[in-house]
UniProtKB/TrEMBL annotation, chains A, B:
Keywords, comma-separated and alphabetical: DNA-binding, Transcription, Transcription regulation
Species annotation: Nonomuraea dietziae
Domain HTH lacI-type: 7-63
Pfam families assigned to the protein according to its UniProt record, in alphabetical order: LacI (PF00356), Peripla_BP_3 (PF13377)
PANTHER family membership: LACI-RELATED TRANSCRIPTIONAL REPRESSOR, LACTOSE OPERON REPRESSOR
One of the record's GO molecular function terms: transcription cis-regulatory region binding
Name of this protein: DNA-binding LacI/PurR family transcriptional regulator
Length: 325, 325
């Protein structure tokens, strides 16, 4: 170690008796150089001895690509689905030489968000579509970001998207309720900021199924759920937005002495492990994300390499019929 | 913009007719320079026009501090507690000029993990204690990381810790069960890797409360829960490790026709929103994390500035008595 400052590639070069360029070639595994195995191992030994590690930032300065994939986490609470997805994406991209970092959860968007992200000189940025404005995208491009990808439920004009088909969730749930003879059909739209927009997309899907659907605004609140349940007449099929809202309604229906599915049928979305523990067991729409990490990694890698490509579906949907419908 | 490469501080200097050092002083808000407001606004205008954003990596090279706080996310699924905590930490540190990034969830530890983290030249690293080996800490120090902090339930020799008091959870839960006249007392230890160690710490705490405590190994599985419940004789008080396991047991007890708390009392931990929806409503130990973000930010900031400081408690514990005990 050189005093108490971190070792630099210059220190490694001096210790190994080679040029700084040689150190860079060896430690970054760059192709196209004729460096002997003996020199390579001398450089690697010196780096090891001095505690030198390559610097993603310095790599950026030299090659224009840090390999950093910046994922701007959405403002909504991260469920186990999102966590597992990021873990798998990290594995997929790690195998291709990228480093995934999640950017802190500050609620910025547009140019302000883009400038903050650009400070890390990422090679790729994956962000919620609502946070990517046209001006923000320009800031990222000017800062050398090669792949810019939106996540959302509708395609974007300027950049490719990872599409989460919320309309499909609503349509699948309501078709199931209709098949089970439910009438009328009710769809819950959560009032929380961050969920509301997805709720409205699910409602649009619910209404595409060919039957009248009543929309109900609902906060995640036991008193509101009790008031909603008190207004039911029996026979309803309720698409509860997700499993958490479905569990809220199941508790309220239980408290009101209503039978599920005898009086009211309830279906959720997500197939949360906890939602399988309800009695009756909850029917749900399961978003199958198993193909998503590989698709996302391929999309990012193609954009970085400049190969044209389009939108990608994050999930496929599957109806899980249990006892609540 | 300069062709299709990102604008550099040199481009800004040329456009504003000043030196590169002046650009650096103005855009990084560094103190101690005498630059007129007129020059400052000319530099800022040029940066804006060229789409230039400062480069966290380049800042590292000049000042030795990137301001990046790298949080290596734990291998266990991230609950809403952990998510909220990171969001608040990000706000606290953002206000002090730091940038929080979460590093991908690859299951590395020791030197391998430290080398990967060091590539981003963070100013601070916060990682699960189990991933910080002595050799790994040396790698980080050699790479110029100024603050290295472990997260775990026991203090560490080499670095300060953010302490999560799992023993306190077990002790508080069992004292409550004893006060409610429960005998015998049973503590669930989850079998999942990643949870098991915390389960054993909670068990140690449970056994410190002064009564015999039977430990039960349990996977998060309905069949196993049913088998466990079939062996109960009545009168037991069960500390279920956390709210999710408590919900698993409530479902199994319901299926077996046992009354809660009449036959068996159950207490969880976490105070999850979903766990409030159980019938009977779940008693739980609530880890209050509200003071944690400010404490963590202060610890990180002090370490970066070289001010000596010690371990910090992440949470305080509170018993929430509802209807299941």
């Amino acid at each position: 170690m050189s005093g108490n400052r971190p070792a630099t590639s210059m220190d490694v070069a001096r210790a190994a008796g080679v040029s700084q360029a040689t150190v860079s070639y060896v430690l970054n595994d760059r192709p196209g150089s004729r460096i002997s195995e003996e020199t390579r191992s001398r450089v690697r030994d010196a780096a090891e001895r001095l505690g030198y590690v390559p610097h993603a930032g310095a790599r950026t300065l030299r090659t224009g690509s840090s390999g950093v994939v910046l994922v701007a986490v959405p403002d909504i609470p991260q469920g186990p689905l999102a966590t597992g997805l990021l873990e798998e994406l990290d594995k997929e991209l790690g195998g291709r030489g990228y480093t995934v970092v999640q950017y802190g959860a500050r609620r910025t968007k547009g140019v302000a968000a883009a400038k903050a992200w650009a400070e890390l000189r990422p090679t790729a940025v994956v962000a919620d579509a609502s946070r990517l404005t046209r001006a923000g995208i320009e800031v990222l491009r000017a800062a050398g970001v090669k792949a810019i990808i939106g996540m959302g439920h509708a395609p974007m004009d300027d950049v490719p998207s990872l599409l989460t088909d919320h309309e499909g969730v609503g349509a699948l749930a309501v078709r199931h309720l209709v098949e089970r003879g439910r009438d009328p059909v009710v769809a819950v739209v959560p009032r929380e900021e961050g969920l509301r927009e997805m709720g409205l997309a699910r409602l649009r899907g619910a209404r595409s199924a060919g039957v009248p659907v009543t929309a109900v605004d609902l906060a995640f609140d036991e008193a509101e759920a009790a008031a909603f349940v008190a207004g039911l007449k029996g026979g309803e099929g309720v698409f509860a937005y997700n499993d958490e809202y479905a569990m809220l309604l199941l508790a309220a229906l239980h408290d009101a002495g209503l039978r599920v599915p005898g009086d009211v049928a309830v279906i959720g979305c997500d197939d949360l492990p906890l939602a399988r523990l309800t009695r009756p067991r909850l029917s749900t729409v399961r978003p199958d994300l198993s193909a998503a990490p590989a698709r996302m990694a391929t999309l990012i890698d193609r954009l970085v390499r400049g190969t044209a490509c389009g939108d990608v579906d994050v999930w496929t949907l599957q109806l899980i019929e249990r006892d609540s419908t």
